[in-house]
Amino acid sequence: MNQYETVFILTPVLSEEQMKEAVNKYRGFLKDKGAEMVHEENWGMRKFAYPIQKKSTGFYHLFEYKAEGKAIDTLEVELIRDERIMRFLTVKLDKHAIAYNEKKRRKAKEAKAEPKEEETSNEPQKS
Questions:
Q1: What confidence score (pLDDT) does residue 121 get?
Q2: To pair with 29 at 20 to 30 A between CA atoms, which of 13, 61, 83, 125?
Q3: Residues ≥6 apart with Cβ < 8 Å to 22
Q4: H or E, element range at 64
């Protein structure tokens, strides 16, 4: 099994519920094809550098997963057919990209944990 990363952009006219439904559809699709989800990120609504389908924003979502190559072909066919998907990109990750992603996630996790420690250390001490 190889490790892949797929980023897709959903049209901004969707409601929050419709967006989550589309994301759940593709998460379930990958799991049905035997993929193992490694990481998932919702990047939210972002502004485009140039208009796509006469729209200037879209909902970005990222999946990082381990799967067989055949699963990617069928996933991409489904993404092409779905009118809610404006653009997508699937990349096969090499060992360096996998290590970079893991390091980036570890640093983000540590950064979230640090402010909590600082908050407790800044409390006035009782005498």
A1: 54
A2: 13
A3: 10, 14, 82, 84, 85
A4: strand 55-67
Q: Please, what sign has the CA dihedral across residues 23, 28, 34, 36? A: positive
> What integer pLDDT is reported at residue 111 of this predicted model?
86
- Low-confidence stretches of the chain (pLDDT < 70) are 115-127
DSSP 96: H
Burial class (CB in 10 A: 0-12, 13-18, 19+), 52: middle
Condensed to tens digits (0 to 9), the pLDDT of residues 42-53 reads 998 999 999 988
Domains and CATH numbers, the chain: 2-94 (3.30.70.60)
Q: Coil, strand or helix: which one is 99?
A: helix
Q: What is the pLDDT of residues 19-34, one digit of tens each?
A: 999 999 999 999 999 9
Residue 4 burial (CB count, 10 A): 21
Residue 18, amino acid = Q
